[in-house]
Design brief:
The chain contains 20 helices and 32 strands. The chain is α/β, with parallel strands linked by helices and 806 residues long. The longest helix is centred in the last third of the chain and has 39 residues.
Amino acid sequence: MSDRRSRPGTGVLLLRGRTLAVLILALVLAAGLLGMLPPTAARAAEGDGIQVLLTKMTPVAKAGGTVTIEGRVLNTGTKPIDSMEVAVRVRTSEPLFRSGISSPEDAQSTGTLLRDPKPVVLHNLAPGATQPWTFTVGADTLRLGPAGAYPLGVEARIGGRTAGAARTFLPWIPKNGLKDVQDLRIATVWPLVDRPHRDGTTLGDENQTPVFRDDDLAAQFAPGGRLYDLVSIGTGMKVDWAVDPELVDSAAEMAGGYRVAPPGSLDPDKPKKSRNGKTPSDEDTTKATPNELTNTLAGGGGQVAAGWLERLKAGFGTQPVIGLPYADTDLAAVAHALEANKADLRPQLSEALAESATVMQRTLGRSVRTDVAWPAGGALDSSIVQLANGTGASTVIASGASLPPTRELKVTPLATAALPGSDKGTALVTDPDIDKILAQDTKAPGQGVLTTQQLLAELLTIVLQEPSVKPARSLLIAPPRTMDASLAGVLKDVLNASADWTRGATLAELATEPAPLPARKLAGYPKAVRESEPSMQYLTETDNLVRSMQTFASILTRPERVTGPFNPALLRLLSTEWRGDPQGMDRYRLGVTRGLRELQSLVYIIRRTGVTLSGEEGNIPVTVVNNLQQPITVTIAAASHQPNRLKLGDPITVTVPDGRRREVPITAKSAANGKVMVDVQLLTTDGRSVKTPESFFVNTTTIDALTRWIIGGLAFLLAVFSLRAFLRKRREAALAGDTNDEDGEDGHDTPFDAGSSPDTDPDPIRPASGWPPAHFAAPYAGGNGPPDPADPHGHTPSGSTTDRPE
């Protein structure tokens, strides 16, 4: 009997078979995990196209009460569903810890599929169609354990398997379950901010009617608008209102009358029509304005804006109000620009803080806190902390991810903390898990209920961590700056539903408590927050634009007509609301820049192609044009590219009336012939450049010494000959007068024979010289004799004396 030998490759096949079995097992497990949906999501099983949505739910189950859950099932597939059942599943063994609420593994645990209430059977669900369902059950019949948050799911089942599900949480309070529990103190920030809607352009009227880039605020202030709903929901709540004064200022401007000019309506590259229908040019110095009625539309939100302001004022009540820096200045961007030595925008931040208090007092008659710093996303680093301290901030709102505890804790840390690297000021820190929940899109179908239940589960779990600890636990809730009405409604529902174990507090109340141990540390600045920040180039250009506006304003006699609308516009360039919208940010900066450049273009020096300077000294005429509606005072400075050949005079300060031009002579001295380039520039009275220089050639024609001697000699000879001729004529006239007196004593001249004349005498006697005597010439000169052949009309020759007495 021969031995049985393994065939070649048998071991390899076995190994491959085992590997295949492991892979199949892994795929099965993965499929099971994919069926476990996260607690805040609702989706269908793959291939079925079923979505379970929760639309309403009893937020907290209490002993002796009932629990109602409402929702609908949506067929997102392409095939109709003949029949399905909707059932509730609850895990009743024990409540979740905080880690379990955010952990899919703990929250997905199967639990018990309830038969009371009975599953709801649905029939004939067409593609794209929805059908509602409702469950109502007594809370006690759920047989939940101690107080806490329990996972709950609603499943759509087809043929005994889950085709879609919605997973959430059910907070449970048994009888006497919270008897000895310290309330959780919650401070809530209620932001009222929006992106900027106006730049620095206005109409040129005396009131400087504001011009908005769009009319979006009209819809937001009206019923159903985001800002309208935020005020309505926040009224009566114990919150700290965090208000951007720029938004309040815009509402007040709208209430007083405004115009709307969409971006692009003001283009400095296009010829602009003045009020008389002409185009401003070198020959037209009419008063020009940046915006006119012809390129703007009447705003339609004046009444709703006025009503919104009244409701806001009433909604504040006695609650504290935080005045954010005007336009919600991006604290982190300012700090990082300063740290990188790219731009120092601290003056703008200080101006924004001062303007905040002024606007709120003027508009709403309300004093506000301006000592609360709230960087974007609550993210901190050492430069932001240093800047916040420099601006006098006593409280800094920070995110829990940015300021984690120095060591791991088994319980949720308190909200109050010391600022790392600072010997003054207090940090109020949010909870990182709650921050993630608040970042969800609560407008998505069914998401509002899921977010509400998850927040309630978090709050109840926090308060049960150390039920009797003193002082009571504290928590800061700071939703996203631009939260919508759906999230605001969720927060209000959460705070109302948790009233049995929470109570409202203010930021000031939390900040007065000593910072507990362990301390907190600065974590690395979040990459996502850094990427949303304005670029250094943008911040540098903003700084340059600020300087340009300040320089231009310094030449005006009424600078407030420019600084009034443009200073706020420059602050809006630094708004935190531009984060995440780089295109909108760049368009806004371009709009502000164009508006300012349009004004600056109305003051200029007329460009020349060239000037000729004859001689060693002379004046170069420079014409300054002022098309503004107010006088300007500028200094005209000229610089020669070759001072050794052409030396120019000192700068001249001149005032040019509104809508006028003025010619300014610049003295020049030439030392050689030829062309010399000259730069003429407009300056402020303290020497700052208003515009780029205008350059042109000056052609000098200097005369040398020899030429000057020749010209002088010729001039002398010409003067001598002229004097000699004059004296000779005087002598001749005198001699002629003496002769006439001697020959005509009887007062009568002796004329020629009437029948003859010198011209008609056939043989006249004409001596070579001295003939005829003076007494013969006199009658003809007096006009009594025959006419001169050279003057047949009898005109008196030039130089003759006709006023001699007879």
